[in-house]
UniProtKB/TrEMBL annotation:
Protein name per the record: 3-isopropylmalate dehydrogenase
Protein's job: Catalyzes the oxidation of 3-carboxy-2-hydroxy-4-methylpentanoate (3-isopropylmalate) to 3-carboxy-4-methyl-2-oxopentanoate. The product decarboxylates to 4-methyl-2 oxopentanoate.
Name of the gene this protein is made from: leuB
Subcellular location: Cytoplasm
Pfam family, one: Iso_dh
InterPro entries linked to this entry: IsoCit/isopropylmalate_DH_CS, IsoPropMal-DH-like_dom, Isopropylmalate_DH
Length: 351
């Protein structure tokens, strides 16, 4: 089958990690008989330099003409002195909004081979960890009415039933493809938005009889993530709670260079590593391409419905780690350090 992919490499290590990701996608395409067709587009600092704006209209048009977007990272010291609204990061925020990407999926998977980087006690994470956090991305307190005067400020948390319904469906559908356990996290004992959130999840639940829905207060969820993380399969939560819990979950699993993400909306998905453009190591072959490569596996799974191919990539990453391949961010003292390209090659060989 043919699949159209928009590619924004962006700035800093974006180029290096996306080049390795495309190497992996091409090999998967060959193996399974798919044709991935890439169209490169500009965003962030590279777009500012070339066109004067962080998100050129042409980039949006390219994205709209494709099935999914593979994104590297944007930003860097070169553009740090620009006013806030002109910075490269604005290109990313605008892109998500323009493409209607309202669900942020952040898997926190702990690789057995890297268990030493987990700050939790060994018995708590025995047999590994595999949690998927779904964060609502376009509503809640970040986008509600705001108000400031000299000695008083206000942020308003707002959610409509429609916004909750669409993220709930993503939560249930994602749980269906996994272990069938969905934990909805809220603060329904205190917040009106949380009561509507909980009620809406309950109303949608009968449509997914194969998924078990649990509710948990956010303070308890934060505690349970470190006390008994293995009880979780899929967690769905509102914008700010998701922001906090997904960082907590990410930290449990290890390096920032390992974690992928997907931002999903109406029939479109954007896939990117959770890390930034890492200007301190850009161009030196030090970046870990695994987060970007696993983001492409999410693309195969969620945008193209190719779960077997996605699993093949995930297994190849595990095999490369089992073979001892380590970029500098995950290498222990005295371990041989591989370059970005070497890591990509070993993962490709393991497909
Ligand atoms: P942003 O604001 O764009 O999220 P940031 O300021 O949070 O960026 P990152 O670019 O994510 O920062 O980098 C944080 C640290 O992690 C840096 O020291 C960077 O070198 C390191 N880092 C980030 N990504 C990787 C990677 N893929 N491989 C190795 N190290 C990385
Ligand atoms: Mg960051």
């Amino acid at each position: 089958m043919d699949f159209k992919i928009a590619v924004i490499k962006g700035d800093g290590i974006g180029h290096e990690i996306i080049d390795e990701t495309i190497k992996i996608l091409n090999k998967i395409g060959k193996k399974y008989g798919h044709n991935f067709k890439y169209t490169e587009a500009l965003a962030g600092g590279a777009a500012i330099d070339k066109t004067g704006t962080a998100l050129p209209e042409e980039t949006l048009n390219i994205c709209r003409g494709t099935d999914a977007l593979l994104f590297g990272a944007v930003g860097g010291p070169k553009w740090d002195n620009l006013p806030g609204r002109d910075r490269p990061e604005q290109g990313l925020l605008k892109l998500r909004k323009e493409l209607g990407l309202y669900a942020n999926l952040r898997p926190a998977v702990m690789f057995d081979e890297l268990r030493r980087s987990c700050p939790l006690r060994g018995d708590i994470v025995e047999g590994g960890l595999d949690i998927l956090i779904i964060r609502e991305l376009t509503g809640g307190i970040y986008f509600g009415k705001k108000y400031t005067e000299s000695d008083k400020a206000e942020d308003t948390m707002e959610y409509s039933r429609h916004e909750i319904e669409r993220i709930a469906h993503i939560g249930f559908q994602t749980a269906q493809k996994r272990k069938g356990i969905l934990t909805s996290v809220d603060k329904a004992n205190v917040l009106e938005t949380s009561r509507l959130w909980r009620k809406t999840f309950e109303e949608i639940s009968p449509g997914y009889p194969d998924v078990t829905l649990n509710h948990m207060y956010v303070d308890n969820a934060a505690m349970q993530l470190v006390y008994n993380p293995k009880q979780f399969d899929v967690i769905a939560t509102e914008n700010m709670f998701g922001d906090i819990l997904s960082d907590e979950a990410a930290m449990i699993t290890g390096s920032i260079g390992l974690l992928p993400s997907a931002a999903l909306g109406n029939n479109y998905g954007m896939y990117e590593p959770i890390h930034g453009s890492a200007p301190d190591i850009a161009g030196q072959g030090k970046a870990n391409p695994i987060a970007a490569i696993l983001s492409s596996a999410m693309m195969l799974k969620y945008s193209f419905n190719l779960p077997e191919e996605a699993e093949n990539i995930e297994n190849a990453v595990k095999k490369a780690l089992a073979k001892g391949c380590r970029t500098s961010d995950i290498a222990m003292k005295n371990e041989k350090v591989s370059t970005t390209e070497e890591m990509g090659d070993i993962i490709a060989l393991s497909l």
